[in-house]
Design goal:
- With about 200 residues, the protein is mainly β.
- Strand 2 and strand 3 form a beta hairpin.
- The longest helix has 19 residues.
- It starts with a helix and ends with a strand.
- The relative contact order is 0.15.
- About 10% of the residues have low confidence.
Length: about 200
């Protein structure tokens, strides 16, 4: 009888943890010809919540995918207290890097629920400090000092999406402009601003 109760308790706990796990249904990253890094991100979580993140690594907006605006909007006064946990929608806790994260950039988004945001920190000596390294299991890489003919600091890949730029062999008037974006899917895509 005790084993049945223990098994039932374990099953209920596992169901509770599973129900709080989030998945990234789709991720759209914006990059630009005129700047390095990622300009903004739109994440759809569990097909229900749209989260907009700006280039400073802060949440700009959230809304239900159905179009109904959520009860959370970025509040700069509240979010200055980086160590505080705030709730967006669906009881998802949001955390930002704070003074206890001594090697990481302060004030940038650390997690939404169980989705972790990682940035290049003081140990990533060939990368620009504070540039986004991963969102959940989506890895991000940049052209760095080892890419001697390419524009430094520009996004090289996001997940399986590859970004190529005009480099030193293509002439100086187009250097650093986007040449191609390959590998976009419904799950992960990279776009540029409209011209």
């Amino acid at each position: 009888m005790k084993t049945k109760k223990a098994l039932l308790c374990a099953l209920l706990i596992c169901c509770g943890f599973y129900s709080q796990a989030q998945t990234i249904t789709s991720a759209r990253f914006r990059i630009s010809d005129h700047s390095t890094g990622i300009r903004s991100i739109e994440l759809v979580l569990d097909n229900t919540i749209l989260v907009g993140i700006n280039e400073e690594g802060r949440i700009d907006y959230t809304e239900f995918v159905s179009g109904k605006v959520s009860d959370y909007h970025a509040n700069p006064d509240l979010e200055r207290n980086y160590g505080q946990e705030t709730t967006i929608i669906g009881n998802l806790p949001v955390r930002y890097y704070d003074n206890f994260d001594i090697h990481d950039p302060k004030g940038k988004l650390k997690s939404i629920g169980n989705i972790q945001f990682k940035y290049n920190n003081t140990f990533d000596i060939h990368e620009q400090f504070g540039s986004l390294k991963s969102v959940g299991n989506i890895q991000i890489s940049y052209y760095n000092t080892f890419d001697i003919h390419d524009p430094q600091g520009k996004v090289k890949s996001i997940g399986n999406v590859q970004i190529k730029y005009f480099n030193k062999f293509d002439g100086t008037d187009q250097f650093g402009r986007i040449k191609s974006i390959e590998g976009n899917t419904n799950a992960v895509s990279v776009i540029t601003p409209r011209k």
